Amino acid sequence: MADSSDAHKGHPLFDGRWDPAEAAPWLTALGAITSRSLSQNNRSRGAEDDSEGKEEVVDISSSRVEDIISAAKITRLVMEVAPEVLRSLAEGYTNDPAMVDLCDRFMFMKDNMRSYTMQYPSYHTQLVSDCMFTAVKRIMAKYPERDVTVVPDFDLTEPRGHPVTINPDGSAKVKVRGHVSHVILHHPAEYDLKQRLLYDDEGTGVITALTERRDISCVIIIDAEEIQRTGVGSHRSEVIGAALALIARTSLSEVRTVIANGQHWLFGMLSVRDGHTVYNEFHRVYVQSASPDMSQRKRKIAHIELSRVVGLLACWIDGVAPFVGK
Q: Region (Disordered): which ranges (predicted)?
């Protein structure tokens, strides 16, 4: 939703290099004109300020977003999935060739690559991208008639740079701006649509496609950066704020969310049904065996845990029950 206010036009500046005696009559006339103009502009701006005073601009990564979410009166629920379902999901991916390759790369990183920071060893952003790649390939192979497009570093603001306006509680307007690490779009395999999503940032780009069409589903991923040492849960309000902004700007009624740092993963879903906003969250998933110098048994466990993560991520892209969409 665009910011309805236009840029204010300034007044011409008087050139002070004129001779003061020659300039005096002009100054008197200009003063009268400027006084009337400023009076009119002040009244106009006062009305605009009244309307814009409620439109606070906040970044999704700020703590203020937590207040916005509270005002939105979002119902929070926990997804309950039977352990045997999760176990079956992991087993379905364990022997996948792409999954085997992912585990080999993961083991290489753990054995040979120093952590981004010794104080926060669980942060491995490359692993997040690798898991996403593996899940996307699985979905594309599953649905030949559909396609997947990944948009990195997605800007939530509009093409002209205006923050997104949302009305979380139906009264005060709140403008939200910021970025998410990745947007994953699951859509029909159409050449023109693919080009729009890949290359067009304005006009007929991602936001317009999500507004005009109802056959595109959306997953957003936020990388839990190393400075966030309180864990992936510290980004919860950020990802909910981003999902709220996307729903406000498009025809989406549901946005699936992922927060990850490579070792810890938090899966959620924000949906709007019959005027009610609900955030469902699946219990946190860990790659608990992500430690150097692992034994063969621990490596096998890590393989299973990574398979579970990739399987869940594929379910989020696909929108299948019992995890999301039902």
A: 38-58
Whether the Cβ atoms of residue 261 and residue 284 lie closer than 8 Å to each other: no
Please state whether the predicted TM-score (pTM) of the whole model is above 0.70. yes
SS (H, E, C) 124-193: CHHHHHHHHHHHHHHHHHHCCCEEEEEEEEEECCCCCCCCEEECCCCCCCEEEECEEEEEEEEEECCHHH
Spatial distance between the Cα atoms of 251 and 273, rounded to a whole number of angstroms: 13
Residue 99 in contact with residue 134, Cβ under 8 Å? Answer: yes
Please enumerate in sequence order all residues whose Cβ is within 8 A of that of 279, keeping only pairs 6 or more positions apart, or say none.
74, 75, 76, 77, 240, 268, 269, 270
Q: What is the helix (H) or strand (E) element at residue 306, kind and residue range?
A: helix 296-318
Run of H or E including 307: helix 296-318
- Residue 208 contacts residue 90 (beta carbons within 8 Å): no
| pLDDT tens digits for range 87-117 | 898 988 888 888 989 888 887 777 777 665 5
- Segment holding 36, helix H or strand E: helix 20-52
Which amino acid, residue 234?
A: S
Give residue limits of the domains in the chain: 20-53, 56-318
Cβ–Cβ < 8 Å for 239, 62: no
